[in-house]
C-alpha cells in the first residue's frame, strides 16, 4: 500500500514537471515571437547601388507566416516575409527582362509578380524542370495560361537550378526552391547581387539552357499533359 502511494506521488510529480516544461516551452516560443514581431517597412536598395545581400531561412521562419498577409513586416532581421517582399520588389523593378530558372515553383505571390511583369511589357522567359512542372501545385500552368514564354527541361537529368535574372543586371539565386515550405520552414538561403562578374555567368548560362530546351519539339511533347486538359484552363494555383 505504501509503495502504491509512493508510486502515485512520484507519478504526479513527474507529470507536473512535464506539464511545467511544456508550458515554459510554449510560453518562451510565444514570448520570443510576440516580442520580436513588431512591424516595420521593408527597405529595398536603389538599383544604382551595389547590392550584395544574403537571406537565410530556418525552422523559426514558420513563426512569421502568421503575418504573411499584413501590410508590413516584423522587426526580425531574418523575417522571411521581409525576404519574400524584397524578392517581389526586385521582380517589380524589372523594366526590360526577367529570366527565371527554377526547379520547383509553387509560391503564388512570386508567380503573380512575374506574370504582372509580363503584362506590363517586360520580356519574361521561364525554364523549369519537366517532372516538377507536372505537379498540380506548380505555377507553370499559370505562366502557360498567361502567355509567358516557358521551356521545360526534358532531359533525363534534373534541371536543379534556382535563379532569376532581372534586366541582365541583377541575379537572385541560392538553395531555395520558390515554395512556401522553403520560405517558411526549411534551412535554405538566397543570395542577391548586381555585381557584374557574378551576374554575367548566370546570363550566359540561362541563354545556353534556353537554346538547349528549345521548342524544336512539339508543345505537346514539351509541356506536361495537365496543360492539355481543359479542366486546367485559367487555373490559378
TrEMBL record:
Q: Which UniProt keywords apply?
A: Hydrolase, Lipid degradation, Lipid metabolism
Extract the SMART domains matched here.
Answer: PLDc
Question: GO CC annotation: what is one?
Answer: mitochondrion
InterPro entries, A to Z: PLD-like_dom (IPR025202), PLD_domain (IPR051406), PLipase_D/transphosphatidylase (IPR001736)
Chain ranges of the PLD phosphodiesterase domain? 155-182
Q: Which GO terms describe its biological process?
A: lipid catabolic process; piRNA processing
Tell me if Cell inner membrane is a UniProt keyword of this record: no
An example molecular function term from Gene Ontology annotations:
RNA endonuclease activity producing 5'-phosphomonoesters, hydrolytic mechanism
Q: Which Pfam families match?
A: PLDc_2 (PF13091)
Superkingdom per UniProt: Eukaryota
Query: To which protein family does this belong?
Result: Belongs to the phospholipase D family. MitoPLD/Zucchini subfamily.
Could you tell me what this protein is called? Mitochondrial cardiolipin hydrolase
Amino acid at each position: 500500500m505504501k509503495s502504491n502511494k509512493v508510486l502515485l506521488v512520484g507519478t504526479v510529480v513527474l507529470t507536473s514537471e512535464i506539464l511545467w516544461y511544456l508550458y515554459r516551452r510554449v510560453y518562451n516560443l510565444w514570448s520570443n515571437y510576440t516580442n520580436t514581431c513588431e512591424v516595420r517597412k521593408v527597405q529595398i536598395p536603389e538599383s544604382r547601388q551595389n547590392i550584395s545581400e544574403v537571406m537565410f531561412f530556418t525552422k523559426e521562419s514558420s513563426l512569421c507566416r502568421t503575418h504573411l498577409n499584413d501590410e508590413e513586416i516584423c522587426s526580425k532581421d531574418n523575417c522571411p516575409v521581409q525576404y519574400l517582399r524584397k524578392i517581389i520588389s526586385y521582380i517589380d523593378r524589372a523594366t526590360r527582362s526577367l529570366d527565371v530558372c527554377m526547379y520547383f515553383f509553387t509560391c503564388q505571390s512570386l508567380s503573380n509578380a512575374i506574370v504582372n511583369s509580363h503584362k506590363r511589357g517586360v520580356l519574361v522567359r521561364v525554364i523549369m524542370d519537366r517532372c516538377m512542372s507536372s505537379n498540380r501545385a506548380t505555377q507553370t500552368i499559370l505562366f502557360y495560361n498567361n502567355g509567358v514564354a516557358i521551356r521545360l527541361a526534358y532531359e533525363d537529368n534534373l534541371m536543379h537550378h534556382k535563379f532569376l535574372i532581372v534586366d541582365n543586371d541583377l541575379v537572385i539565386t541560392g538553395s531555395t526552391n520558390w515554395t512556401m515550405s522553403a520560405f517558411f520552414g526549411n534551412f535554405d538561403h538566397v543570395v542577391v547581387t548586381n555585381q557584374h562578374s557574378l551576374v554575367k555567368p548566370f546570363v550566359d548560362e540561362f541563354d545556353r539552357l534556353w537554346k538547349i530546351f528549345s521548342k524544336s519539339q512539339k508543345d505537346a511533347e514539351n509541356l506536361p499533359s495537365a496543360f492539355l486538359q481543359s479542366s486546367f484552363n485559367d487555373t490559378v494555383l
